[in-house]
Amino acid sequence: MTTDMAYQIEPLIPALRRYGRALVRDRTAADDLVQDCLERAISRWHQRRSDGDTRSWIFAILHNLAMTRLSRTAKLPQHMTIETVDENLLGVAASQEDRLRYQELLSALAQLPDSERSVLLLVGVEDLSYAETAKVLDIPIGTVMSRLSRARARLYEATSGNAQQGAGARAQLRRVK
Amino acid sequence: MNTRPISEDDLNGFVDGTLDAKRRGELTAYLEAHPDVADRIAGYRQQRDMLRATFGPVAEEPLPSRLDLRRMIDAHRRPGPASWRAMAAAAVVLLGVGGAGGWLMRGMPDVPAGGIVALAQEAAQSYAVYAPDRIRPVELRASNHGELVAWVSQRLGRSVAVPDLGASGYRFMGGRVVATAHGPAALFMYDDDHGTRLVLLTRPMASDRDAAMAPHTRGDVNGYAWADNGLGYSLVGQAAPQALRPIANEMREQIVTKRASAVKITKSPA
């Protein structure tokens, strides 16, 4: 049984880290969540429904831990400045122009309500089906669809028009420096 | 040519590749005829790709050693340091308060009566009485949350909050005031989908007003006890100590956070 557990959970760990990082941004905080999640998964393995899907089950554990953490840290004052470079960006975006586009997208992502951001990430980055996403978040599929629509529309609105408007805003930012 | 109207769900299905070939064809035709929508959908796709490019590398990183699953499973199964401590605690709790003091509070001249060792015993005793009760495990149900909190806070002479264990899969059932050798205590009960029950016992502490979390065991009932700011807590249940520890941590963290924010509110100018 133990080997079955390792066999089923182990391949999911990289994706759990990715989802955790996308939700809470900070590497250490995200790995704390994943560690907690794995410990819970191990101790509750026998409570899992044997016909259930392990991926949805374990993503749900991680998601709930992350939401608890986010609701706690949301109450603390945030010291975000325009200069803050998201550590997630360190690996991508070679040119300055690209970097700004990514930065813009990530700050738009950060502005989304948690409920919409989760759906967008689970479907778009984790490749979960709508049904699996519904199971992870414990909501009906219809709600998954409407949150996904809203999230995509918001992200698009927040970053489109960047051709002219965005360029102007960037020029201003540079001048301030 | 009767095609179903195109919906936002279709557009998202198009982005996510969930449509069948026929519907996909209809969408392609629609987008050709509606360049503004086509632009938006191209934007959705591009943003999805950018998010994947941003977070994708995280899954390629070598795993930090603390996320070594096999080692975690081994530690969970083998009687490791954690459960050894639990067994030692079990032994001393069975010896009674006097004997227990020697282990849990070594270095202290006396075992303070009413400290967390006593609290741990009271919690295990309350669990044994109320958790198996199928008729009336709690006096006031979770639906009377406000009334319950007001009642126990009044009897304990301290404001008492009920930790939320939703993230751990446990629902709050309700609670009651119970008698202990050291005065009234509040008992809160939780259960999960399998009917597994947990009990949190809390009461004011005459000694051990602040105490680090320590495991305790009595028969097949395990628990963790600690004290914070003059209130003692013991979480008990028929679960493995390894399963209880993160829940106890979660409770302690919620209690500390709540207290910290309450202090902030009272300190801020009116």
Question: pLDDT below 50 for ≥5 consecutive residues: which ranges of chain A?
Answer: 78-85, 163-177
From the N-terminal CA to the C-terminal CA of chain A, the straight-line distance is 59 Å
Number of distinct helices of chain A: 9
At CATH's second level, what is the architecture of the largest domain in chain A? Answer: Orthogonal Bundle
- Integer-rounded radius of gyration of chain B: 27 Å
The main pleated sheet of chain A reads as: none
The CATH class of the largest domain in chain A is identified as Mainly Alpha
Shape verdict of chain A: globular
Order of helices and strands of chain B: HHHHHHHEHEEEEEEH
> Total number of β-strand segments of chain B?
7
Number of strands of chain A: 0
Which protein chains are joined by the largest interface, and how many residues does each one contribute? Answer: A-B, 53 and 50 residues
Q: What is the total domain count of chain B?
A: 2
- Average per-residue pLDDT of chain B, rounded, comes to 82
Unreliable spans of chain B are: 95-112
Give the quaternary arrangement of the chains: heterodimer
Q: What's the order of the H and E elements of chain A? A: HHHHHHHHH
Give the distance, in angstroms, between the N- and C-terminal Cα atoms of chain B: 69 Å
Shape call of chain B = elongated
CATH class of the largest domain in chain B: Alpha Beta
